[in-house]
Amino acid sequence: MYPTTVIGILFVVYSLLVFTIMGWFVYAVTHKRRIELKFKLELTAWIIFLAIAAVTFHVVTYLKLPWVKWEIMSHAMTPKREFKINVGAYKFHFPETPMKIKVNDPVRFSVTSEDVTYGFGVFRNDGTLVFQMQVLPGHANEILWIFHNEGNYTVRSTEYSGPENWKMIVKDAILVTK
After folding, report:
1. What DSSP string describes 105-169?
2. Smallest Cα–Cα separation from 143: which of 95, 94, 79, 96?
3. Mean pLDDT throughout 96-114?
4. Cβ of 11: how many Cβ atoms within 10 Å?
5. In degrees rounded to 5, what are phi and psi of residue 2?
6. What's this model's pTM, rounded to 2 decimal places?
């Protein structure tokens, strides 16, 4: 099985346990009989079990998700390239097109909005999303990323910002090479 499949299954099991304890609590609160001490101990045991399961789940999976490790280490990482991108009047303004990046090199995208909230989404040629972030005016909007596969990537707005938003697609905006 793939690691992401195992993580997904574990997350579903954990979620079902949380819903079970929530249902158990609702039953205990709404039941006409007085709750006995035995039930309270079992409820406490469930809460402790769920807390331990949650911590264990996050410890086991936190480095399996690619961006988490980068976010944890981002303060210590020096990007090989940094691109300052301005967005305004429904257009991306790149420093160069295409933005050239080497495989496995950390790169920082600093995106600023001049007017409204936009999205900054990077997509593969097959249309699948690599990453995205919201670009809020008046805020620092940065993301550190490492591309593991070479190819051309498309940038498009992933946040509805008005009637011209659908035109915010720049094909082959990023070129990743070895």
Report:
1. -EEEEEEEESSS-EEEEEE-TTS-EEEEEEE-TTS-EEEEEE--S-EEEEEE--S--STTGGG-E
2. 79
3. 93
4. 12
5. -75, 145
6. 0.63
